[in-house]
Write a structure and sequence with these properties.
This protein has eight helices and five strands. 56% of the residues lie in helices and 12% in strands. The structure holds thymidine-5'-phosphate (TMP).
Length: 213
């Protein structure tokens, strides 16, 4: 897929309250200024399955949703979303996606028994579409929970749980250093945006050079 892709695919990752939404808006602002055609999107999506997921997450108590149910719902939503995003990318449109496959590896990967299937599905989906760059906003759960205090909390937004998710994200970043750029999410949003945009531009420069060879 990546070979025929003309646009640039950026994903944003991090635990709940890490500042992804603010970063997404700041990146969008930058792309608008540069007149770069782009789409800002997110998972769970605004499509039918995405809406169902959000409803179920709101209704569920801790651990009442089986992790296998979550895995299949998030993956079904993503499979449809990938098809949409590929269409944009093939037209040369940049896609900025708030959460993608790394979210499932980090969140649903918490269940040791599911690890194999979580990674197998992840590989199949990455084969369809892989981010050119992933920005991982790293923040301690204590800080992120402080930020989302006041927002409605679902069971994900709990501290021990988020610690495990954060660890898994950081492990992924160690495994895929060239794709996943870790940025300290405790900094001022403008600093975070500057660092992210610099990393994105660098990755895009490398892609352009690679295509010329
Ligand atoms: P959001 O708060 O970024 O909109 O995401 C909603 C919740 O869904 C968040 O707690 C993370 C969780 N999630 C997963 O567990 N697996 C996934 O694959 C995705 C996309 C989200």
């Amino acid at each position: 897929m990546i070979g025929s892709q003309k646009g640039f695919f950026v994903t944003l990752e991090g635990i709940d309250g890490s500042g992804k939404s603010t970063l997404a808006k700041n990146i969008q602002f930058y792309l608008q200024k540069k007149n770069i055609p782009h789409r800002l999107t997110a998972e769970p999506t605004q499509n039918d399955i995405g809406k169902l997921i959000r409803r179920m997450l709101k209704q569920s108590k801790q651990d009442s949703l089986h992790s296998l149910t979550e895995l299949f719902l998030f993956s079904a939503d993503r499979t449809l979303h990938i098809q949409e995003m590929i269409q944009f990318l093939n037209q040369g449109i940049w896609v900025i996606c708030d959460r993608f496959i790394d979210s499932t590896l980090a969140y649903q990967g918490r269940d040791e028994k599911l690890l194999k299937i979580v990674y197998t599905i992840g590989e199949v989906l990455f084969d369809l579409l892989k981010p050119n760059i992933t920005i991982l906003l790293d923040i301690e759960p204590e800080h992120s929970l402080h930020r989302i205090d006041g927002r409605e909390k679902d069971f994900y937004e709990q501290i021990t749980y988020l610690r495990q998710v954060r660890e898994r994200y950081l492990e992924q970043a160690m495994d895929e250093k060239s794709r996943i750029k870790v940025i300290n999410g405790n900094q001022h949003p403008e600093t975070v945006a500057d660092l992210a945009i610099r990393a994105i531009n660098e990755a895009q420069g490398q892609l352009i050079s690679a295509r010329r060879i």
